[in-house]
Design a protein that fits this description.
alpha/beta, Rossmann fold, 15% strand, globular, binds nicotinamide-adenine-dinucleotide
């Protein structure tokens, strides 16, 4: 049986790069995403190594309905909780509680719900593993105005530690903490060239990360990190 990796937010950016890397390993991927067009493109690119489902991971019923369709050959063996949004920029003095709820629902609650679905339907394998996509923002507080995002990633790291304890020894659970990676989530920052150059200057390796840089680390944690659980691996070009 080949590994089947369920990737939330798998149609674009880091999630899509993880799908490509998983396929290059000879495994298969299930992509859950809200972006129908990019799901279709991933399906066309990866052929029968991928299965795509349009799912909003902040919608528990949608997650449960999608997972009910995954049986037999497509029962997942690994999970990547990757879907995430940065949320609207707002100061603490002007914080909108509804926006905080939205960010936490997509970035944190989704990981609980997708993990529950995974645990109910998974096909057991000795190398079973889960990877959660956190951020260096969990440790440094993130950019000004993105407190909800930073708090969501801190919560995801604590959830990673809790999952690693509860799911051991059957399933290894680790998190990735990327730095500044060149994907759509950063497009507002990248639209401002001066802001982008200021940020690149803070990275010891002097370049933005690429989605593939993170995907390589994800593949290691998924398939090769046989004695590693409950850890956060930073992929940030040295940026703290
Ligand atoms: N790019 C970075 O600089 C960076 C840094 C640290 C952490 N991360 C984290 O990595 C993960 C992936 O980010 P990315 O950079 O690839 O972003 P991205 O915006 O390029 O991709 C995110 C994907 O998630 C999907 N998505 C968003 N909301 C969803 C929902 N409710 N249900 C299902 N799918 C949904 C989007 O459609 C998109 O395909 C996120 O959790 C992000 O917080 C990114």
């Amino acid at each position: 049986m080949t590994a089947v990796v369920l990737i939330t937010g798998g149609a674009a950016g880091i999630g899509r790069a993880i799908a490509d890397a998983v396929a290059a390993e000879g495994a298969r991927a299930i992509l859950w995403d809200v972006d129908a067009q990019r799901l279709e493109k991933a399906g066309a690119d990866l052929g029968d190594q991928v299965r795509t489902q349009r799912v909003d991971v902040s919608d528990t019923d949608a997650v449960d309905a999608a997972s009910a369709e995954l049986r037999d050959d497509w029962a997942p063996t690994h999970l990547v909780n990757n879907a995430g949004i940065i949320g609207r920029r707002m100061t603490l003095a002007e914080v909108d509680p509804a926006e905080v709820d939205r960010v936490l629902a997509v970035n944190v609650r989704s990981a609980f719900v997708a993990t529950r679905a995974f645990l109910r339907m998974r096909a057991e394998r000795a190398d079973a593993a889960i990877v959660n996509l956190s951020s260096i923002a969990a440790g440094n507080g993130g950019a000004a105005g993105n407190a909800a995002y930073a708090a969501s990633k801190g919560a995801l790291q604590s959830l990673t530690f809790a999952m690693a304890r509860e799911l051991a020894p059957a399933i290894r659970v680790n998190a990735l903490a990327p730095g500044i990676i060149d994907t759509d989530i950063q497009k507002d920052v990248f639209a401002d060239r001066d802001e982008m150059n200021t940020r690149i200057a803070t990275i010891p390796l002097h370049r933005l990360g690429e989605a593939v840089d993170v995907a390589q680390a994800a593949v290691w944690l998924l398939f090769r990190a046989t004695y590693t659980t409950g850890e956060v691996m930073t992929v940030s070009g040295g940026k703290k």
